[in-house]
TrEMBL record:
Keyword NAD: no
Upper taxonomic lineage: Bacteria, Pseudomonadati, Pseudomonadota, Gammaproteobacteria, Vibrionales
Coiled coil: none
Family indicated by similarity: Belongs to the short-chain dehydrogenases/reductases (SDR) family.
Domain Ketoreductase span(s) in chain numbering: 6-193
Gene3D superfamilies: NAD(P)-binding Rossmann-like Domain
Protein name in UniProt: SDR family oxidoreductase
Pfam families in the cross-refs: adh_short_C2
GO MF entries: oxidoreductase activity
Record's keyword terms, sorted: Oxidoreductase
Classification via InterPro entries: KR_dom, NAD(P)-bd_dom_sf, Sc_DH/Rdtase_CS, SDR_fam
Length: 252
């Protein structure tokens, strides 16, 4: 894929990984459809893309709302005339143990705690992937869908909901690669390890130190290292149906 001739949509584009992906792809000349629920954060990302001289439009949408997702991707094609790529990046964390029993006190992960993460991370990825694929097919674009998974897909203490969602989005990517190849559409996933984001920065220094000691390269990953992998996947037309682990060698 020649990014200079492409339009790429990014969900969760308002901050962190999504923002760095947008800036990296803008550097490569891609036009961007920036999707998030946070209008103010989206404006910051849009301004950064505009400074690089590319067209970037913002779309306020809840990825769990089917009607909003359908309308958003229809609007993207109306505004740009095409859609060539999607990065399914929007996601949330609501960590907690499945059950915890101490003395006479019992706590459980609530159904709402579980479903809220599944709704955003998995259902949102499904809806956006479906609508992006439909638009690519109808406009006869040879595109690509990238799902952001996680090394937690292998299972991680306190992340029943998150791990399940990230295992599922990796499987969606490998399934879509098989289903959509007939239309010239590729799909893949990236499974980041622990990445230095605003969310990670909220951890206590001693917790960060312990965490980094577990990572063979000795540090957390940087957002640009994930973004550069996104760029690589778009530009290498022979990568399809794979989950790329970018984790510094850590294994959950």
């Amino acid at each position: 894929m020649n990014l200079r001739e492409s339009v790429v949509a990014i969900t969760g584009a308002g901050q962190g990984l999504g923002q760095m992906m947008a800036v990296t792809l803008a550097h490569a000349g891609a036009e961007l459809a920036l999707i998030d629920v946070n209008e103010q954060a989206l404006k910051v990302t849009q301004d950064q893309c505009h400074m690089l001289g590319v067209k970037a439009l913002t779309y306020i949408a809840d990825v769990t709302n089917e009607a909003e997702v359908e309308q958003t991707f229809s609007d993207v094609v109306t505004d740009f005339g095409q859609l060539d790529g999607l990065v399914n990046n929007a996601g949330i964390l609501r960590d907690g143990l499945l059950v915890k029993v101490k003395d006479d006190h019992v706590s459980k992960m609530s159904l709402e705690q579980f479903t809220s993460v599944i709704d955003v991370n998995l259902t949102g990825t499904f809806l956006c992937g479906r609508e992006a694929a439909l638009q690519m097919i109808q406009t006869k674009r040879l595109g690509m869908i990238i799902n952001i998974s996680s090394v937690a897909r292998a299972g991680n203490i306190g992340q029943t909901n998150y791990a399940a969602s990230k295992a599922a989005v990796a499987t969606l990517a490998t399934t879509w690669a098989r289903e959509l190849a007939r239309y010239g559409i590729r799909a893949a996933a990236i499974a980041p390890g622990v990445i230095e984001t605003p969310m990670a920065a909220q951890m206590k220094p001693e917790a960060i130190e312990r965490l980094e000691a577990m990572i063979p390269v000795g540090r957390m990953g940087h957002t640009n290292e994930i973004a550069s992998t996104v760029k690589f996947l778009f530009e290498n037309d022979y990568v399809n149906g794979r989950v790329i682990e970018v984790d510094g060698g850590i294994r959950m």
